[in-house]
Amino acid sequence: MRLSPRLLSLGIACLLATQAQAETVVLEGARVFDGNRDAGVQTLVITDGVITTLGKAPATLPGDAKRIDYRGRWIIPGLVSNHSHLGNTNGTEHGDRHYTRAVVLRDLKQFQRFGVTTLTALGMNGPAFFALRKEVHDQPRLGAQLYGAGAGIGVPEGAPPAGPMGLASDPVARPATPEQARAAVRQQKADGVDLIKLWVDNLGDKAPIMPEAIYQAAIAEAHAQDLKVAAHIHDQAPAAELVASGVDIIGHGIRDTPVAPTLVQAMHDAGTWYIPTLTIDENTYAFAEHPQWLQDRFIQAALPASVKAQWSAPGWADTQRASAGAEKARRDVAMNLRNLRTLHDGGVRIGFGTDAGAMPSRVIGYSEHRELELMTQAGFTAQQALTTATRDAAQLLGLDDRGTLAAGKRADLVVLEADPLADIRNTRGIQAVWQAGQQVAGPVLAMDHAPVAAD
Ligand SMILES: [Zn+2]
Predict the structure, then answer these.
(1) Cβ pair 107, 304 in contact under 8 A
(2) CA within 20 to 30 Å of 229's CA: 23, 239, 245, 332, which one?
(3) Mean pLDDT of the chain
(4) pLDDT band at 207; cut points 50, 70, 90
């Protein structure tokens, strides 16, 4: 008999409530994509949140092992996002005033329900970030495991633009001298960030960009503190200068010009990571261009009611479609896809991220699955896209306990209804999400959207 997801989660909740000793869970019958390849139908034995067996079921199991029948299902590692944001949107609004415990946990839970079990909040985090990071690391049921860059380091009067991003109390450090840049890095290290985020150029606008002397000082200090540096760019010129200066991660796709062979070679040789965030621009016009997408149940499950209402209102789609921003965004997506193909073909290390959560249009959860689909439009096979979003994304963060499924790894995994290697869109058929050996979410289409009160 196959248990219904509701019974299953109730059963596991009871088990957890009553059992303080070693807990063994056995997931049987599913076909496993282990982060590298299709491993075939395998049994997963999980004890205390860690995979102890991936293969044939052991001859003996503890008598109280919980067995779950996943015949006909697929299991993939939990997705890892290298570039997202949280606590910055509430319905149709955004800004740092939303960075509260309730909103951050709501966002972490939404990432988790959509299969993202580890995420990187790449800047614009409020002071509550550090306590919340610890809280969710201790309690997987609260939401995805959180890593991040704290507030990040930007440019005086430049990126991230305080007005458009709604940064009323602006948590971002904005050093004016190299020594201030070094001090900002040391402060963030002391606060407990996982990496350093630099905003170098501002979405290709004419706003001041971060001077070379500032980011070189920040990169040198970060490396002295054993921290990687991710940089926000839009254009190729600053990206090339950053790579030459030893930046570890380019945080967005290059969207102004086709990437030069010299830069491909330089990134390949230096091992620089590249996070394309293909959806960041597509999200600005896609829902206006395809109003029927709003009827899609998977997208509906990701959208707050107020956003759904705004995007369905008479005239909204026409205005968005005709805007100059939409025209630019279409060009940016085309260039981003083209450059991703070039960089991937050139052997550059690709990370996984979307910028979801920075604005209401960058829809948490939905964006990650759309990003996988867009990667296949840039020439990735479904398997390469999935490997990028699991094994490689974990490697970018320096986390060797996850990203693949094998004995000794964390039991962070997503149970799917159909084969994601046959069609990448099958990652949307989420039946269950497990994090640290606990089932933390059921079918994504059963999600509800309890509004979070502003405080
Ligand atoms: Zn971002």
Answers:
(1) no
(2) 332
(3) 92
(4) confident
CA of 121 to the centre of ligand 1 (A): 8
- How confident is the model over 367-379, as a mean pLDDT? 98
Closest CA to 332 of 246, 431, 233: 233
Distance 277 CA to ligand 1 centre (A): 9
Residue 21 pLDDT grade (very low, low, confident, very high; cuts 50, 70, 90): low
CA 201 to chain centre: 22
The phi, psi pair for 5, rounded to 5°, reads -55, -35
pLDDT digits (tens, 9 = 90+) for 210-219: 999 999 999 9
Q: How far is the CA of 280 from the centre of ligand 1 (A)?
A: 9
Catalogue all structural domains in the chain, each as residue range(s) with its CATH number. Answer: 12-76+408-441 (2.30.40.10), 78-396 (3.20.20.140)
The alpha carbon of 434 and the centre of ligand 1 are apart by a number of angstroms equal to 26
Contact 77, 66 (CB under 8 A): no
Strand partners for 41: 31
On the question of a cis peptide bond just before residue 161, with omega within 30 degrees of 0, the verdict is: no
Ligand 1 centroid–CA 231 distance in Å is 10
Q: Which residues lie below 8 Å from residue 311, measured CB to CB, with a gap of 6+?
A: 287, 288, 291, 294, 303, 317
Could you give the C-alpha distances from 68 to 60, 309, 315, 415, 418, in angstroms and in order? 16, 40, 49, 12, 18
Q: How far is the CA of 258 from the centre of ligand 1 (A)?
A: 22
How many residues in the chain? 455
How many other CB atoms are there within 10 angstroms of residue 448's CB atom?
5
Average pLDDT of the segment spanning 4-20: 50
251 Cα to the center of ligand 1, angstroms: 8
What are the helix (H) ranges across 208-296? Answer: 212-224, 236-244, 261-270, 279-282, 286-289
Q: How far apart are CA 369 and CA 356, in angstroms?
A: 11
- The residues with which 250 forms a beta bridge, in sequence order, are 231, 274
What's the CA gap between 199 and 215, in Å, rounded? 9
**The predicted structure's pLDDT at residue 18:** 44
Please indicate, yes or no, whether the overall pTM of this predicted structure exceeds 0.90. Answer: yes
Over range 140-157, report the average pLDDT.
Answer: 96
